[in-house]
Structures are given as structure tokens and as C-alpha cells.
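Researcher: If only I could read C-alpha cells as easily as an amino acid sequence. Walk me, if you will, through where the backbone shape changes along the chain. I have put the entry right below:
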Amino acid sequence: MHPTMKHLTLKAKEQLLTGLWMLAVLLTLCAPTVLTACHTSDNTSNDSPVGRKVAEITERGTLLVGTTGDYRPLSFCEPETGEYWGFGIEVAKEIAGALGVKTEFVRTSWPTLTADVLAVPQTFDLAIGGITITDARRETMLMSDGYLANGKTILCRAAERDRFHSLADIDKSEVRVMVNPGGLNEKFANEKLTRATIIVHQKNEEIPTLIAEGEADVMITEITEAPYYVQTDTRLAAPLLNEPFTHGEIGVLMQKGQEDLLQRVNSTIRRMKADGTLRRLHEKYGLVYAY
């Protein structure tokens, strides 16, 4: 008998034993409920989208990549062959390689990009190619670390390169500014240019040629896109290339709830920075390396 039991009255002993017996009964009755509750919690964790995306991609054997295919030299789809090429396309293939799967590219557009990323069921696993990291996008979606420095600049005709020295030179009633719809270029033009005539053209890849042919005077573009067109069309110039109006970075965009995939994407970007792969891609596409 426990030493403390010796000092209890008979009635007290009976009350204590009765209490212990009732406690034992309650524990026996509640045990299945406790186990069931724990089991349910485990199932909820397993069913959660967090942590399951990479497994889904691995099981499928393919990384579905949303991209606009209209943004040389980051993402372009050759109309004759349907083949995708560009800086962002190569980054996507590096991510797929790290996951041990193939890549499949799915066409999206700048006006529908956000809706396509958030679509249920998903149209693709992630989006890539000229997508600037912004706080607004991070509010509703996940964005990776940056892998390419970016900023707003202009394309104009080479013969008029001395005409444009600042944003004030562009924001005049006689200047025709052309942009593609639905993206940050159109947003920038609408916010910053109150006097210039803004022309929205549906196909981004056609705008540089239209500028060269005199259909408009200026294209609002990025420091990632402008060098390509200057190099491939001598009629064009980018006089403010080294003085961009904004500063930012380009990253990979995806749905929230895919933190496991985000971790793998960021890990791949860090590895590409560390082993020189990213620098080599910058050199291949004539882009400034900022890391």
C-alpha cells in the first residue's frame, strides 16, 4: 500500500479508489476518440496541397510551364515549328532537370496571366519568361527569387535616338507610344504618360518592327528585351538602356500552396548562380549579369 494511504480514513480511501476507477473508465472510453482525432489530423496534413506539388510533378513526369512565347529573348515560340526558345525557357528546363522530369510549355498571355496561374484545376505548374516580381503579385501568388535584373526602358528609331533623353521627352502630345496589352508595360505607360498618345497593340513581338516602320515612335519595353531588337534590327535604338525608369527583377510565378515547388525552384536558381550557369545564359543572350 502507498505510504500516504495509511493516513487516510476508510471513507477517504473508498472515495479515492472510486475516483481512480472512474478515471480509468473515462480513459478507456476516450482512447478511440483520441486516436481517431490524431488519425484525422494526419490525413488532413497528407491531403494538404502544401508539400504535394513536387510529388505530383514527379509522378506525372512532366513540368507544365506557362509562358507567353512573345517576349524575345526570354520566351519565344517559333510560329512555324511551335518550338520555344529563350533565357526563361532554359531556366525552366534547368528546374525540370533538377526535378528529374521533362518540360511541356503551355501558352498563356499577359492579359490572362494571373487568371491562368490561379486557375482550378491548374493549367500549368508555374509561369516563366519576363515576369517581374511585384508586391501585388506576391499578395495572391508565390514568386521565386530573382534570376534576371529588369527595368523599364524604350525602343525608338535609330534616326531619332537623340530625340529622347528622359521620360519628359516621351510624354508629349506628338509622341506615339506603343505597348502590348495586359502587362506592366501598359500599366507603366498609363501611369507615367499623361500627354503622349498611347497605342495598344495585341502582339508584343510585332511592336519593334512597327516602331522601325514608323507606325509609332516609342515602344515601352524592358532592359531584358530591348538589346535583342537593337542587335537584330539596325533601324532601332535603345537610347536609355543604361538609365532605366524602374528597377526590378524577373522571377518564376506560381499558385500559393506550392511551397515545396517554390523551394525547389529557388534552390535551382541559387545553384545556377553559384556554378556559373546563370552567368553563361546572360552572356548567351547578351544580357547584363547582376549577380
